[in-house]
Amino acid sequence: MLTGKQRSYLKGLANSEKAITQVGKAGITESFIEQLDLALEARELVKVTVLENSLLDTKETANEVAQLLNAEFVQAIGSKFTVYRQSSKNPKIQLPRN
pTM for the full model? Predict the structure, then answer.
């Protein structure tokens, strides 16, 4: 569980990141989850775009994705959301303590 300070820190890092994947008309598919799992392991912080034609709510989708991937929901703004999961092999992001 992220603290407010850690979430704020991650929001700052995510601000300069571009979305690397998107949820489309098919919704949250198995291949999408596999792709995002690999991206989280490599990057730890990932931004995702929810396309308008998917008819999904961004925040609900973000929470579902975070739960499926055992990740932390960071933020949802407009049609984009950000999730974080510390890499098990090569941690890069040093979160602030409380």
Answer: 0.93
